[in-house]
């Protein structure tokens, strides 16, 4: 009996030893870092950055790109509890960053920010998006201004020009609709919030900010008016079917819809499809619905590149983040993708994108934080589902707002 | 009978590796999920004990009502279409000369995975897809409830019909010929022969086919996730999709776990009640 039990314990001990692995992790010196991201379509561009960094600072970088953001976020969160940790990873500013910083998972980057601002590589305007409890975390992986991409050939064909006022935009939509062209792209999945934030920002940006901080309700008259305006546009037949799963890049290329509202990063999709700015497509800032507002509202987002507090080689990760902010790295990162950059020294090749970056920097616009970052995650989840329902059944807008507000009430009751 | 001495001494040792694997990979995750269902947990901070609060929330969550309704639709639809039609195809074809060739086309879609199946059918059922063009209609197959669930059920039928047919054919071929011949001599044929002789003889196999289909339909996930992600809004969610969305999209691991426990209990209970009735 005793021998039998000893044999059992022996087997268990061997198995546990095999499962346990290297318990006391020793710090390594890395020459190549892993960069986990939810931008699977950008792998080629990350690879190019990895080759450049290896050449310049002796640190290579290998990207692992996810295409499903829910899976990606679950992996990153799980990695905090395991030994499979990314050296670098992309995330979101706002509530999502705050959440993981509060868990002490993210490496502080205050020193990187101070040096970069001193060297003119980062603008202090960006700092608030990366500041939690007076300290900075992560660096900008990208920045983006939101506006309208339009199919230039379709516009030329119908004698249209980028609109200067909201009325002009609606007139352009009416002209296109009359000619049998669908004016605007629309979706019920993930980016279902785009027109909500755009109309909110163009009608009442103060209300939008109050909504983001729980000081206003989704059922307030101002928000209801926004939904009614959105419904009006849907009812007029200005949007393509929200269930259409055509990639928005292809929607632009094929002219399935004449206009697609996205961040400047959408230019990468244009680059990938060999479309030329100025001849194939153009970009304009969407005019405010309310002309009385002092400044045109422009949706702004900045996506962070982070490293973990418990990274395998914290020094190497910090070194990489520091290099990422430099003009040399940003020049490459922006030009290969045809995008704007967080580094003010970088020259933007695309004329329209260069102009919006310059105008935004000079204070011409009121920058409004993108809904995705501005809204706390539980409310965001309910809102994305709600807007998905609304774009399919526009008559449900009041119920949708009530459902989102129910989630908001629950959240703000414990987070004010 | 005497026990082999070596086996007696080391019997726990032999069983231990397999038992450990089962414990670590099956029991432990289940117990952990059951524990999480009694907590508030965002996947980052420590789980906070909330007792039965998540289960109470199940009762007043309109999204759960929708996903329960859709799941029941999947169960009923699966019994009617892949299983019912499978039986019909099997009965009509098994006696035919060259019946095997007739059944081959039904089998081919079974080679596709659930995700692959959904990827292939999504564009077909989209707004400007082949289905609308061929039928000359303008139906939002994947958008309006319950049309979207019914459309996905048809896709599911397209894939599952073949394997159910095959199982029923095997059942038909394995039943003894004598009682059928005797019944025929007594003048039974057609529906009466099937209803009173063939159907009772096939009962053990039908129990397996229906049991498997019951479990598969209760945990429907991949086809819905790929084709509609449970939307628009939440109108095509099944219990399994709600479980995934609450856990990994909304990061509400506690509530997601409560849905997982509910789904486990429903599946276990349905299987138990069904099999207890069938295997008597």
TrEMBL record, chain B:
Its domain of life reads Bacteria
Keywords, A to Z, come to: Cell membrane, Membrane, Transmembrane, Transmembrane helix, Transport
- UniProt subcellular location: Cell membrane
Name the major location: membrane
Question: How is it placed in the membrane, per its record?
Answer: Multi-pass membrane protein
**Domain called ABC transmembrane type-1: residue spans:** 68-274
Spell out where the chain crosses the membrane: 12-35, 72-94, 106-125, 145-172, 193-218, 253-275
Keyword ATP-binding set for record? no
> Mind telling me which Pfam families this protein's record contains?
BPD_transp_1
**Is Transmembrane given among the entry's keywords?**
yes
Entry similarity comment:
Belongs to the binding-protein-dependent transport system permease family.
State the PANTHER family in the record: ABC TRANSPORTER PERMEASE PROTEIN, INNER MEMBRANE ABC TRANSPORTER PERMEASE PROTEIN YCJO
Can you name this protein?
A: Carbohydrate ABC transporter permease
